[in-house]
Design brief:
alpha/beta; Aspartate Aminotransferase, domain 1; Aspartate Aminotransferase, domain 2; 2 domains; 14 strands; 38% helix; binds pyridoxal-5'-phosphate
């Protein structure tokens, strides 16, 4: 693959060639790699401010990549940055002992998120999910986890399966098999996973009826945000809640993307469904690495009494706690999410109109500040719908057209566009103007 306007990205290209000599693949995470869409090379970043990002070639973008979600307050959110700097200068960074700001943060999380009665902090979403699963297994004395095809729950061995497998090579639509992300994952772990298509209430009910006694947890994103953006069908999350309760199965909401994004209380507040455990990361820290696992007190009691060990040298380090305290304060300001939804909805509905006016078949799927464009004529309700119907080739042309016009989001059709509190109505107008030009090109 080449960029049509290669000269525009020349410095990034040169740096990437150099980086590949010392950094495996030239990048430090799969989502930035050529094979994840940044083909022939990713952009190298100079910096970000508010809703904008500048690359090393001096191109400025309206940024809907937002670091894959954490920058919900925009880049360099002043109050979070100040809180972190002050905390480091006044206190330090790591003590391996507790401190008062951790208690303040815990109280804020409990107040904000409906299901959290007690909480533990860690550093990444991967860790939070890993601990949630371990807790569910310890609490129920059962070993199997239901996990849905097309979701991503971090890169730990136990769950890095069946993210985006080839549907023709991974079992039937109603009975997918567990497909590891790649070699190196112990094959035996497949036995601990039941992989299901998402959004199929009858099938979930059937499987819980048959296997409920051996299932520790149903692990789900409340909105599928790792295969583009797929909303739960009406009643699906409700049924999930009801059926897991009936079978004594722990319901885990992985709110790493939806948490502090769909609402201060996450998707669980937005949809009014209370899981047993939930995990948070990206939206929580205003751009700093911090994550949380929280939920029912009787389950968290296993952590409280040491039955389940949750360890971590850097867990609740001063930087993470200061950042999260400041970020949650910012997010808690009255009226903020209403404004976020206003700007986000204007963009999503605006794009819908742009494609309709241009005669380009496209579906805008999402909720508030997270959504994706499906270049598909068929509705998409689960991973296999997306794998079969969404055009990656058209998405690439759309993405590159927008990039050339100063609008940045991830090149992967299975990723998302994120809107931040820093995006303005003017940013949306400029984005829509660029989209009109690109939609016309797509049509031709
Ligand atoms: N869970 C979900 C839903 C995610 O989207 C991600 C990351 O994108 C993770 C877990 C893993 O989080 P982290 O990258 O912080 O380890």
């Amino acid at each position: 693959m080449i960029y049509r306007n290669a000269a525009r990205y020349q410095t990034s290209r040169t740096l990437f060639e150099q980086a590949r000599q010392t950094i495996s693949g030239g990048v430090n995470s799969t989502a930035r790699a050529t094979w994840s869409g940044w083909d022939p090379h990713p952009l190298f970043v100079e910096g970000g401010q508010g809703a904008y990002l500048t690359d090393v070639d001096g191109n400025e973008y309206i940024d809907y990549l937002l670091g894959l979600g954490p920058m919900i307050l925009g880049h360099r959110p002043a109050k979070v940055t100040k809180a972190v700097v002050e905390a480091i200068e006044s206190h330090g960074t790591v003590f391996a002992l507790p401190a008062v700001p951790e208690m303040e943060l815990a109280a804020k999380l409990i107040a904000a998120v409906p299901s959290i009665e007690q909480v533990r902090l860690c550093n990444t979403g991967t860790e939070a999910v890993l601990y949630a699963i371990r807790l569910a297994r310890a609490f129920t004395g059962r070993s199997k986890i239901i996990r849905f095809e097309g979701m991503y729950h971090g890169f730990s061995d136990g769950v890095y399966w069946s993210k985006h497998p080839d549907p023709e090579q991974s079992g039937t639509d109603r009975a997918p098999i567990a497909v590891p992300q790649g070699p190196g994952m112990p094959a035996g772990l497949a036995d601990s996973l039941i992989i299901l298509p998402w959004n199929d209430t009858a099938l979930l009910r059937e499987v819980l009826e048959r296997h409920g006694h051996e299932i520790a947890a149903v692990l789900t994103e409340p909105v599928m945000c790792n295969t583009g953006c797929i909303l739960p069908k009406p009643g699906y999350l409700e049924a999930m809640r009801e059926e897991t309760s009936r079978h004594g199965v722990v319901l885990i909401f992985d709110e790493v993307i939806t948490g502090f994004r769909l609402a201060l209380g996450g998707a669980q507040a937005h949809y009014g469904i209370t899981p047993d455990l939930s995990t948070f990361a990206k939206g929580l820290g205003g751009g700093f690495p911090v994550a949380a696992l929280g939920g029912r007190k009787d389950i968290m009691a296993l952590v409280a009494d040491g039955t389940v060990s949750m360890a971590g040298t850097y867990a609740a380090n001063v930087i993470a706690v200061a950042a999260a305290n400041a970020a949650v304060d910012e997010l808690s300001q009255p009226g903020r999410y209403e404004m976020l939804y206003e700007v986000s909805d204007k963009l999503r509905h605006g794009l819908e109109r742009v494609f309709a006016d241009a005669g380009v078949p496209a579906l805008l799927a999402g909720v508030g500040p997270v959504f994706q464009v499906w270049f598909s004529e068929t509705d998409i309700h689960d991973y296999r719908d997306a794998a079969r119907h969404a055009s990656h080739a058209i998405f690439r042309r759309w993405w590159e057209g927008m990039l050339d016009r100063g609008v940045l989001f991830h090149p992967g059709a299975f990723e998302n566009l994120f809107v931040s509190f820093a995006h303005s109505h003017d940013d949306v107008e400029r984005t829509l103007a660029a989209a009109r030009e690109v939609a016309t090109l797509l049509r031709s």
